[in-house]
Predict the structure.
Amino acid sequence: MFNNYITNHFSFQAYLGKIFARMLEVQIRYIQVVLTTAIFVGLLMDNIQLLTAVFVGLLLVWQLEMLSGQLRVDSKEYRLILIFISVTFLPVLFNILSESNIQTLLYIVLLLVPLLGIFVMDLNIFKLGNLLFSTIISMTVIHFILTQYFQDNIMYLTYLFLLLFFIKTIATLFNVQFSNFQYFFNFFAAVVVFVGVSSFYDYSISHVLLAGTFTALFTVLINFLILKLRFESEFINELSTQVYLYDYLVAFLLSLFFVDAVNIVNGLF
């Protein structure tokens, strides 16, 4: 009887965790809609600061959703969520204060946070690794957004982001994310968008094709890793279409950083 009580107690706690995670997910959807709309406002106003803030905001919201799938927001684990969100925001703070040794300081902090999670929270290494992986992705993309060459090409990159957003949104309406050829679609969508937008700029077609192909390849691979992490979420029963959409867009931004696509299209190898 005691074992049944323990089993029912933890089952009820897991059920509550899923309810709170679902409530948070609904709020996140509203925030993502507002931030995505703000991108259009930033383009119309030609406001680089607004566009930068929106991109950073989208990454932080995406990170919050990833963390809420692994940690219970209705328990003391919310403290660890706040810690990881704060760590993810550090590139912004360091960019304001100083640009020296930013990456070194950030990854030192990332090494200290898991130790804090182990000694303060009763978390297993597997879950902590998932949390750290998503945090590294968010932090890397935010650092990339704040770099000078992203800022110098922010309009070009915003057009890539928005066009890919529209194509991926239409695809999710037809449930392409559940089909067998989803990876081919994700690859060619990125290539077509890269070539299409770049054709309006004075870029060499060979450089565009090279950057577009490698960016699309890395986008598919990174998106696959993120989805694998999503399916291991403890407090999310099923993934909504918006999850597939924003996971893909985050993977695209991270691929731009890894491939160094901005320099490649400009012929800087």
In short: The chain has eleven helices and no strands. Residues 148-269 form one domain. The radius of gyration is 20 Å. Residues 72 and 78 are 7 Å apart (CA to CA).
